[in-house]
Amino acid sequence: MNIGSIKENAQGIFVGKITTLTIAMTIALRVVQSANERAPKYDILALGTSRAWVKVGALFELFANGTGEAFLNGKLEDPSLASPLYVSAFRQTDGSYNLVWSRPTTRRRDLASEVAAKSDDALPPLPGEEGGEPQVQEGLGESSAEHGFGGEPQETGRKQRGKRETEAAE
Description:
Blueprint: E1 2-8, E2 14-19, E3 24-31, E4 42-47, E5 53-63, E6 70-76, E7 85-91, E8 97-102, H1 111-117, H2 163-169
Antiparallel strand pairs: 1-2, 1-8, 2-3, 3-4, 4-5, 5-6, 6-7, 7-8
């Protein structure tokens, strides 16, 4: 699906717009100067609310398997986006690019959706339900100051040991 276009302006800079239901941004492409053949061809810059350009992604030059035709492929990623936006840019006869979006082919496992997808029958019974633990368990709600380990009563208050009791304990 086409979500935007990029055209070269009078200054020789590729500028365009991306528009979806939740995104409306002005973007520009800046050529990446690198001797590395694996480097992106362009940085993607977006015009922020403060009217400053912010780098939000990169486009790499790829070639179609069947025709050998060059196209650009990359993603936009920014904290303001719910998830990265994967895009491809295809050159048109007038020199502009049409931008299309795509979903990634391999998705990361989403644990929350996996848990939600399981049936409620797989959950253990709630406390107090048949087969579940009783709601009030023995020993809960009792102060450790009043009861020692093993349920034996314990003297309340602090008792200071005398010199003889201290020596005998050692």
